[in-house]
């Protein structure tokens, strides 16, 4: 199993390295790839040292699997080249997500979208992944009409520059490099990604479009407000779900969600138990709580969703896709016991 990790030195790339080891993904040849300034430098992974390669070098090595987390521009140019060479490409950027014929996959939901023929596979947006993990089991039994979501997104979703800005501000340094147009410490910024002509941001429209594609139902309407908050542990979402018919009872909702693989119901307000990003950090599960009936519409419920955006929201979901490629026989390497 020759595996190329493109964007190996970035935040998501570093978490992918950790997840590959934790899940014992079978790798016989590891090919780290990064920008020109890192090419030739040593990278230590899984007890061995590797030289960081260029994209050209990695392509010439013809890996079986490519995990790509280097941005949309790199992906648009290079994913087709690796696919043409017979490599499976799992791409973490937004470049291919809404492209017809490209599967957009959360393995617990739609792993059947994977095939031997489709070489480029899109990893969904981090906020979308945790949202659909909750929507899917509910929608299967009680069809959903509309979803209204407000996100509370960690600075880790922006990258290392945003973490540096937050840490600088907390030390009283306000003249350092700025990842955001405004201070982030002691602040909330209702601006994730670029604004579009309709007044929504790209991040908000990703939730709108990607949710429909993953659920396989264009009738589900999604409206979002995405907010950046001074948190490093993960993303949180306040969600109002309106069903097409009568809403399920709250005990039924908790039972349906508790049965969903990868989902943890944490819903005991009397004992101050509910999902929080500091408790989700470093975890692969999606956490859901604060489940309650809406006071205005008798077809609606509220809930609160939290997940580590660098793990299930990016790295872990990508590795899970790779595991399904193996278990389905598309990648001819057996997984270790227990997978």
Radius of gyration: 20 Å
Q: How big a fraction of the residues is strand? A: 15-25%
Alpha-carbon distance between the termini?
A: 16 Å
Helix content: 25-40%
Arrangement of strands in the largest sheet:
9-8-10-13-12-11
Mean pLDDT figure: 96
* CATH architecture call of the largest domain: 2-Layer Sandwich
- Please report the total strand number as a whole number: 13
Can you describe what's shown?
The structure is a single chain. The chain is α/β, with parallel strands linked by helices. The protein folds into 2 domains: 2-95 and 314-327, Rossmann fold; 127-308, Dihydrodipicolinate Reductase, domain 2 (2-Layer Sandwich), CATH 3.30.360. The chain contains 10 helices and 13 strands. The chain has helices spanning 11-22, 55-60, 72-84, 107-110, 126-141, 160-170, 202-215, 250-258, 277-280, 311-327, and strands at 2-6, 29-33, 42-45, 48-51, 65-68, 88-91, 120-122, 144-153, 221-228, 235-243, 263-265, 286-293, 300-307. The strands form 3 sheets. The chain has a 6-stranded mixed beta sheet with strand order 9-8-10-13-12-11. A 5-stranded parallel beta sheet has the order 2-1-5-6-7, with helices on both faces. Strand 3 and strand 4 (48-51) form a beta hairpin. The longest helix has 17 residues, at 311-327. It is globular and about 60 Å long. The two termini are 16 Å apart.
């Amino acid at each position: 199993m020759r595996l190329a990790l493109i964007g190996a030195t970035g935040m998501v790339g570093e978490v992918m390295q950790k997840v590959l080891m934790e899940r014992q993904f079978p790798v016989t040849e590891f090919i780290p790839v990064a920008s020109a300034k890192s090419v030739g430098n040593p990278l230590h992974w899984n007890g061995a040292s590797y030289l960081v390669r260029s994209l050209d070098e990695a392509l010439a090595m013809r890996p079986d699997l490519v995990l790509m987390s280097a941005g949309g521009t790199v992906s648009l140019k290079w994913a087709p080249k690796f696919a043409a060479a017979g490599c499976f490409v799992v791409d973490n950027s937004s470049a291919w997500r809404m492209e017809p014929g490209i599967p957009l996959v959360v393995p617990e939901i739609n792993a059947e979208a994977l095939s031997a023929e489709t070489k480029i596979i899109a990893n969904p947006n981090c906020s979308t992944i945790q949202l659909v993990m909750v929507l899917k089991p509910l929608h299967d039994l009680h069809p959903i009409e509309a979803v209204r979501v407000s996100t509370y997104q960690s600075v880790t979703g922006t990258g290392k520059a945003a973490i540096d800005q937050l840490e600088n501000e907390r030390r009283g340094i306000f003249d350092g490099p700025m990842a955001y147009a405004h201070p982030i410490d002691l602040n909330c910024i209702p601006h994730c990604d670029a604004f579009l002509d309709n007044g929504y941001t790209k991040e908000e429209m990703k939730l709108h479009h990607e949710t429909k594609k993953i659920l396989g139902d264009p009738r589900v309407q999604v409206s979002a407000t995405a907010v950046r908050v001074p948190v490093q542990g993960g993303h949180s979402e306040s969600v109002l779900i309106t069903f097409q018919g009568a809403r399920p009872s709250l005990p039924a909702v908790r039972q349906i969600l508790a049965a969903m693989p990868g989902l943890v119901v944490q819903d005991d307000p009397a004992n101050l138990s509910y999902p929080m990003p500091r408790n989700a950090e470093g975890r692969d599960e999606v956490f859901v709580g604060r489940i309650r009936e809406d006071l205005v519409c008798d077809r609606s419920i509220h809930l609160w969703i939290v997940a580590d955006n660098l793990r299930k929201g990016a790295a872990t979901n990508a590795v899970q896709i790779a595991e399904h490629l193996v278990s389905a026989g598309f990648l001819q390497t057996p997984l270790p016991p227990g997978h």
